[in-house]
Design goal:
InterPro entries: AB_hydrolase_fold (IPR029058), Dienelactn_hydro (IPR002925), FrsA_esterase (IPR050261), UCP031982_abhydr (IPR016986). By secondary structure, the protein is of the alpha/beta class. It has helices spanning 3-20, 93-101, 127-144, 164-172, 185-188, 193-199, 252-261, 285-288, 292-295, 303-321; strands at 26-32, 41-47, 54-58, 61-67, 76-82, 105-109, 152-162, 214-220, 238-243, 267-271. Helix 2 packs across helix 10 and helix 3 crosses helix 4.
Length: 322
Amino acid sequence: MSAHLLGRFCLSAFLGLAAAHTQAAGFQRLTLPMDQNGPGLSGAIWYPCAAPAAEIKVGRTPISGVLNCPVPEGRHPLVVMSHGSSGSFLGHHDTAAALANAGFVVAAVNHVGDNWEDRSRQGYLSIFSTRPREMRRLIDYMTTAWPQKAKVDAGKIGIYGFSRGGYTALVLAGGVPDFRAGLAVCQTTPSLPMCRDIAAGKIPQQSYVHDDRIKAAVIADPLNAFPGDALNAVKIPVQLWASERGGDGVSPASVEAVRQGLPAAPDFQMATGAGHFDFLARCPAEQAETLSVYCREAAGFDRQQFHQDLNAKVVEFFKNHL
């Protein structure tokens, strides 16, 4: 998909927020400057807000929320979000807002080189080691540098990850990927640089970071690079979602392999009738035709209704474990 169309998808995600929520969530833009740990990161923060909803604009796009609403007193659990390949920090905005309405602070960033604006490293193996590092930097920022850091409970941190973001969450939780076994996405897209390198045995030695601060994870349709006992060190509670129809290199069988590889049984949820991209926030009707790969819903499937169930279960899971 072209960067232009992906950009329109991100704008549609903003527009969807206005339609999906009647309660306000506080909203801030987020910028992490470049430092010795990596390049600059951009994203957003959602958090509880006591003010009534209003229309705000991000660029030229109107959304429903309260820009820079005061963060309520108290210490709030933190959930960080990791998007899928060529995605956006806005891809799961409705889930972020639902968590904010339930009392959580939520932070998400664009992964460098693997987002809708910059896909320069999308097909390279290096992205699999930098993604977890960027999430760790985000947690560092939210707990030590965000101006409202005193209102974040650093002992109650969770992560939500979708697709490659699900892979990212599993690494942070203790998973050790092994690309020698290959990736399902390489069966359909063998021309990707990482697929060529895997096939040729050119797999660089990469270190993968774990983060013991993360106490719970919700993982939706993860890209599976964890054969055998690669997930044995994942000890935190996990809610694992699988779409019934799969897509983008993820299948029900590959998610089931993750389920079987986890040392403790996860809170497993099958999204009946859903495809891979149904975990993204629902597209406005006027975008559905242009961005059909992301927006099309199978006959009889209602993404908005699915997200009501998804968001309720995600909120309940994090409340129980944070």
